[in-house]
Structure formats: C-alpha cells, structure tokens
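Extended Data, panel c. Modelled sequence:
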Amino acid sequence: MEEKSNDSAVLRVEELDLAYGDFEVLKDVSFEVRDGSCLVVMGGSGCGKSTLLKSLIGLLPPKKGRVFLHSEDLWASASEKRLTILRKLGVLFQGGALWSSMNLLENVSLPLETYTDLSETEIEQIAEYKLSLVGLAGYEEFYPSQLSGGMKKRAGLARAMALDPQVLFFDEPSAGLDPLTSRRLDDLINELKESLGMTFVVVSHELASIFEIADDSVFLDAQTKTLLDQGNPTWLAENSEHDHVRTFLTRGEESKEI
C-alpha cells in the first residue's frame, strides 16, 4: 500500500490513548487525514468510534497522545488557543442538532453571529449560500419540524460549514435514513469534496456509505482496543492481513451495489 506523506495531512493523530476514568477504550492510535479527502472511521459496536470522534472535536481529553490540525496541537494548547483551533472544525451530529425554535437561516447564521464581526446582511448572504450548497435554497424560513430526516442532516451540514472549517466531522450520517436518502447524502459529501476540496472525517458502520465516500479508512478493534488496519476500504476488503477487517468489509456483498 502506498505511503502517504505528512506534507498533505490536515489532521494528524499520534499515539492516542483514550479512556473514561480507569476504563481504557483505545490505545496507541495514530493516523493522518489528507487535505481534500474523506477518511472513514469504522469498526464494530463498542470499538471506540464515537469516543475517538469526541477527542478529535475537543470533547474528551486523551490520557496520552496528540491531535494536530496542521501544526497546531489541540490538547497541548491553552484553553483560549484550543477554542480558536476548534473553530476551524465543523461537526454534523447524528440528529442534525438543529435548534427547533429557529428556522434554517437562523440556525446556519448562529455560528457567524457568535464568532464573526460580519454585518447582518453579510451573515444572511453567507447562510443562504451554505444552504444552497446542500440543496436547500428556498427553505430558509422552514423550521426543523417541517423537514424530513435527510433535509435535517443537510441543514446540519450547512451549519457545520458556516465558518468554512478545515475539517468536517460526521457522526453516523446515514443513521435513521432510508437507503435512497442515505445515498443522496453520500453523493453530496463527494460533490463537496470534489468541487470545494473539503476534508471529511466520517464515523460509519454502513458498508454502502463506506465504499461510496471513503478515500481512506481506519478500522478500530474492540478486542485489542487498537487501530487494527488503515487504507482504502476496497483495498482492505481484499488485501488486509486481518481476517476481522476483511470479514467486516465483505459482509453482505450486495450492500455495495445499493
């Protein structure tokens, strides 16, 4: 498998140990995410996917190890500097996490109002543009309760993009969606990556999405609590030296054809 250079890495994780109190979840995890790519974090239930995501977005400090955004060390930085680094990240949570009392324009405008000095007109223009990027032009005045599950995910994505993040994190984007809606969301991720050069880190266990969006992937193992393998999932499905990884990626071959 071809080695990837650190020169193109926007996110780098080095020898990360994660735990809740005395309960160890992951140990010695290292990988990097290339600029303009999509890396999928995958593995079975209880392997630590969501725990890793929490550490990467500033919610769970590691017991050991480092997380770099370019050359900036997230967890070694003072709290004020850490907040500045975190503003360069965007997060789409499973349910979209939209404010139910705000319409879509207000939801997407909120980060801009909180963290920039832009005028009201400028904020509105940017929010409208972000909504148009995810196919929601014309829905600015709609409230979350008026949207389908897929539309809520896209609105959440528009808000995550509000501050032009260097990396976008998705937690199980396909959760709760039917296969067609899930595929449309996958297509949107690919479109944003290819047209705007956006970088994604996606936590997923859905094979159809993994094969559709991933340029690279890391496989977390619940038994060893380690990163068991890394590479393009299509390559890993045939060539991984770990039976566990190949079995995970080849279960239900028909899923790849959805």
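DSSP finds nine helices and ten strands in the chain. This feature is highlighted in the accompanying rendering.
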